[in-house]
Amino acid sequence: MKRYFLRALGTHFRAGRTLFFLAVFGVALGVASVLSIQIINRNALGAFEGGLRAVSGEADLTVFGLAPALREEIYPAVLAEPGVAAAWPLVRADVALGGRRGRFLEIVGLDLFAPLRLPWQVAPDGIAAALSTPGWVALTPALAAEMGWKVGDSFAVTSGSRRARLRVGALVDFHRITPLASRRLAVMDIAQAQDLFGRQGEIGQIDVQAAPGEDRAKLAARLRLRLGDAYQVVTPEQREKQAAGLLGAFRLNLTALSFISLFVGCFLVYTSTQAALVRRRAEFGLLRSLGTTRGQIVALVLGEVLLLGVLGVGLGIPIGYRVAEANVKTVSDTLSNLYLLQAIETLTLSPGLCLLAACIGIGGAFAGALLPAIDMSRREPRALLAAYTLHERIGSSALPLFLLGLALAGGSGLFYALVLRDWRPGGFVVGIGILLALPLITPFLLRLACRSVRLGRGRFGVLYGFKSLGLRLQTTAFAAGALAVAASMLIGITLMIGSFRKTLEIWVASTVQADIYISTESWARGRSEATISDDLVAAIRRIPGVHAMDRLRQFMVQAGGRRVALSGVDLGLEGASARFVLMDGEPRAVLRRAREENGVLIGEPLARKGEYRVGERLPLAGPRGPLLFPIAGVYYDYASENGSIVIDLKTMAEAFGPGPINNLALYLEPGINPEQAVDDLKARFKDAPLVIRSNRRLREEIISIFDQTFAVTRLLQAMSLLIAVSGITLTLLVLARERVSELALYRALGATRPQIVRIFMGKGVGMALFGLALGLLGGIALAMVLIFLINRAYFGWTIAVHWPWPALLRDMGTILLAAALASLYPALRASRTPATELDRDDL
Question: Exposed end of the chain (fewer CB within 10 Å): N or C?
Answer without folding.
Answer: C
